[in-house]
Amino acid sequence: MDLRKYLFSGVILQGVGLSLYAQTDKPNIVVIMTDQQRADLCGREGFPMEITPYVDELAYQNAWFDKAYTVMPASSPARCSMFTGRFPSATHVRTNHNVRDVHYAKDLVTVLKENHYKTALVGKNHGYLSSKDMDFWSEYSHWGKNKPVTEGERAVSEFFKESVGQCLEPSPIPVKDQQPARIVDEAIEWIDSQKDNPFFVWVSFPEPHNPYQVCEPYYSMFAPDKLPPVKTSRQDALRKGEKYQILAELEDASCPDLEKDIPRLRGNYMGMIRLIDDQIKRLIEDLKEKGLFEKTIIVVLSDHGDYCGEYGLIRKGAGLSESLTRIPMVWAGYQIKKQAKAIDAHVSLADLFPTFCTVIGDSIPVGVQGRSLWPMLTGKKYPKEEFSSIVVQLGFGGEDVPLDDKLTFEQEGALGHDKVARFDELNTWTQSGTSRMVRMGDWKLVMNSYGRGELYNLKKDPYEINNLFGNSKFVNKQNELLTKLVAWELRLQDPLPLPRHRYHFKRNPYNYHFSE
Q1: Is this prediction's pTM over 0.85?
Q2: Helical H runs in 426-474?
Q3: Domains and CATH numbers, the chain
């Protein structure tokens, strides 16, 4: 045999071996996302009912955050930010109707493919990705599976088509056909098909988003007479400004008995979360049984929250309250260091992509604005100042649109011909204008483009009723948060495109702005 051929073939074989090693040595990634799940309805935050027992225990044995925030309380902006690591002001996706306008240099799926990952979506998309971007694609929506095949899937789709904005009776869909159960079935089946390559799967539940439907036994688990009462009322909504008032009027037009129905809808919402918790348990315990848990990094989170009866409202839409902006976030599995309590850091949905880059040993792409959480998740040192605050954005710009009689709910599209609003909460009125919030410690500041502000001490006023903005007693704190908000706004100016000549663009490997 020709020596050169032998040496050449040996190099090739060695290269193949290294390539396979590089592929299989990287951890699998499982992102478990719910739609519209607020952060505080869980045992680890003191909620008195067993609504998330499995994820609570997962958090206690691994790591979790109690100051994790969405980038914007709307599905598409949030999901586009998760995959690009960029805030809505940079992605250009500031509403659910601007997905095609998404702007970025390189996203998570691209980086994963460059690192030889097999990728899958099982569940809700509502972002810019499509089936051609993933190796496996099984999409679900709030109206059932996009391409129903089985009798159970078709029955679910038919039920949702006939459903109004909310369901007050026990759902006729049995547990095995509820979307979270079917999504976990498919996710497990796809994971079982993976052999040599590391995998990424986005397990994306359309629930507990409306329509609020849940079957037994979950329906009775959270009966209205068992629930702790809400701490706010419709009167509090009316005090919080015109956008809340508009949303209240719209919800009343769509749901004439909303005040009476809210306790049952809250119970349904909580029952949906418990059903999801049981399905998350089934998925993660399956990973453990197959010996994959320690080889897989898992994150459980939501895209944004829900009023769940707060201010006499349901769903989302107006303002930047904690009920809408703060999200659950639990990390588990591969190299995650068990933390004694919630990690004391303000983090964002935009931080997922850069964290995964660090995990798999790749650099964070230019244009990414989120930061890697990997040092803190693995018990390493990190700059405390970097995570001392976080911002959330809201609004598609222009002037605020008041409740103008010239534009009716029907004309705008918020109400259908049947006067039923299935997705009324994101509309011209609630989403117009521009607002920003900054959370720092126990304090929170919200500003809009008119210079109107809100200042809350969340420790003393968790439901954000007592607006301290302009109160001379708190002027120093107000100025401190205003300074922090301006700094964030400057930091989040989109660096793309970078200068084409001479200038050197400096970045920290973790995308940190501050050092130790």
Answers
A1: yes
A2: 428-431
A3: 3-389 (3.40.720.10)
